[in-house]
Amino acid sequence: MQGFEFSADAAMNLVVDEPRCYALDVVERVLTKRPYVVVVTGNPCPEHAEDLWDLGSHALLVEVMPQEQRLGEMLRQVVIGVYGGMRYLHISTARTHLSRKHQQILRHVAMGQGNGPARVHTSTAN
Question: How is domain 12-95 classified at the CATH fold level?
């Protein structure tokens, strides 16, 4: 995992999704070692956001620009909420129209796993 370090005394991890889709791999690995994961991504793809949320991110900030003056305050509120047992989702993109199976296939392909471990197949009837 290039570009990500665990701190032994960190109770929460902030994952910045750069390069794009980097957070998918990181979140899967971090959640097995740390109780709290906050992800910030500029990726506007709704399927990507749903994948990060479905993996169990405690907070997900989508399309939040680092230069926004609100980011510091937003992160402060997120940290307080996550420590209080809440999950936090800030998303400004449209929701996906893909089925769950199609979204799962897309995620596995994006991660270089083909159709995934179970080789999920779909068919279309004419």
Answer: Rossmann fold (3.40.50)
